[in-house]
Design goal:
444 residues, Dna Ligase, domain 1, 3 domains
């Protein structure tokens, strides 16, 4: 087992990893930017190293500084959390070259599954259902037009290096394709330094359902059931729940088998997520794979009583997994609490938290790094907390979430708490009747 782990991240996920490491008897090293010097992960880690100024490209993405911090503190492993360098094949390779274990996937695996066009081709070979689309990357606008005509509109063009909805465009007819092609490529190049595109048939009003998987270096793989992530705004997840209210026993069994088939085919090691789009007839299609821990992992932990961070660390240390798959025993919902103003197009709202009160009680979990007096910097993601409620039934979990949101007080900044509270009263949400276009439908 590792003696000391450096956490190459910040915020609530850094705190989450620190807690599990302490329970496992593993020393921790926090890294931080000058803007995060007063953050809780700096205070609660055993050691802390400043890796640069506030901008992330000068600190949390500065690989040379992070490797140096690991070396001067004698850390034998690095946990990247999610975001930042968690899916960087170059960073994974750099860790390997410096004899530091990257608690994530190898550079080869990240390249194979991180490139979305390549991942789709791999899943086709594995026998996992995929969305009809282009055969690999599109070389030109003319090829895109021909492919769209062959597939049939509506279609979706996507950046192969994309994520978070960037570099994606829905196209409903041939008169829209040129403008969408140019803007998607430009956005992808700006966001990811890569403007390569591929195309898929647009699945209208789908559910976004993902399967949590874990694999080890001995060929074993299992799934930990599903999460429904369909409540999104501009492809950014807002609320997740498990089990999905759309799920049937037959569909869960089939999707679970496909996820395990995918994991074994690529010899996957660690915690990962196979993401699917599911149409209204419950046909499902592989969308992408995330080779890291997910933001929404707590709801899976809650319904199967399982520490995913601990499992990640154990697999990275070469320990066998049981290979047993899990089914949800309870119901859990997660609301992402963002420092944003829902009344002003969800604009980020950095600033100082003047008053803070967390909800509590049975079945309520808050993952966060903020405290009263904390200054939210303007340089990073606006998520400041995750509120998770767990109960015996979906109805109880929703009622518990309503009560918890009412207790969650943050003054000094705008947050998405009122937005989530209103959503909990929405009749369609209560019925589980929603798709990825649900939030858009509220404003139309």
């Amino acid at each position: 087992m590792f003696k000391k782990i450096l956490i190459a991240n910040r915020g609530e996920i850094a705190m989450r990893i620190i807690r599990t490491c302490k329970e496992m008897g593993i020393k921790t090293v926090a890294i931080y930017s000058t803007a995060d010097s007063e953050s809780l992960h700096v205070r609660f880690a055993d050691e802390a190293v400043c890796v640069g100024p506030a901008p992330s490209n000068e600190s949390y993405l500065k690989t040379a500084n992070i490797i140096a911090a690991a070396e001067i503190t004698n850390a034998d492993a690095i946990h990247p959390g999610y975001g930042f360098l968690s899916e960087s094949s170059k960073f994974s390779k750099l860790c390997e070259e410096h004899n530091i274990k990257f608690i994530g996937d190898s550079s080869e695996m990240i390249n194979k599954m991180g490139d979305k066009a390549s991942a789709i081709a791999t899943m086709k070979s594995a026998g996992v259902p995929t969305i009809p689309g282009s055969e690999g990357l599109l070389e030109s606008l003319e090829e895109a037009k021909k492919t769209a005509k062959k597939i049939g509109y509506p279609i979706m063009i996507k950046a192969t290096a994309g994520g978070g909805g960037k570099g994606m465009r829905a196209i409903w007819g041939p008169d829209e394709i040129e403008k969408a092609w140019d803007s998607a490529k430009a956005e992808s190049l700006t966001s990811f330094g890569n403007d390569e595109m591929y195309m898929e048939k647009l699945i209208q009003n789908p559910r976004h359902i993902e399967i949590q998987i874990v694999g080890d270096s001995y060929g074993k793989a299992c799934h930990l059931s599903e999460r429904d992530c369909s409540i999104q705004r501009r492809h950014q997840k807002l609320i997740e729940e498990t089990p999905s209210p759309f799920m049937t026993e037959e569909l869960r069994k089939s999707m679970g088998k496909s996820a395990i088939k995918a994991a074994k085919f690529i010899k996957y090691e660690g915690a990962g997520t196979i993401e699917f789009l599911v149409d209204n007839k419950r046909n499902y299609y592989f969308m992408e794979m995330n080779t890291r821990i997910q933001v929404e992992h707590p709801i899976t932990e809650q319904v199967i009583d399982f520490d995913l961070i601990r499992e990640q660390i154990k697999v990275a240390a070469g320990i066998h997994i049981s290979g047993k798959s899990y089914l949800p025993k309870m119901h859990s919902i997660e609301c992402r609490i963002n420092a944003e103003d829902p009344d002003n197009d969800f604009r980020p709202c950095p600033g100082q938290i003047q008053t803070l009160h967390f909800p509590g009680g049975h079945g309520v979990r808050v993952d966060t790094h903020v405290y009263s007096g904390y200054i939210i910097p303007p340089f990073y993601d606006s998520m400041i907390a995750k509120l998770i409620t767990t109960a015996q039934s979906r109805e109880e979990a929703i009622n518990k979430m309503k009560r918890a949101l009412d207790e969650f007080l943050i003054e000094g900044i705008k947050t998405t708490i009122p937005f989530h509270r209103n959503l909990m009263d929405n009749p369609d949400f209560i019925k589980g009747n929603y798709t990825t276009r649900f939030i858009e439908s509220l404003s139309s």
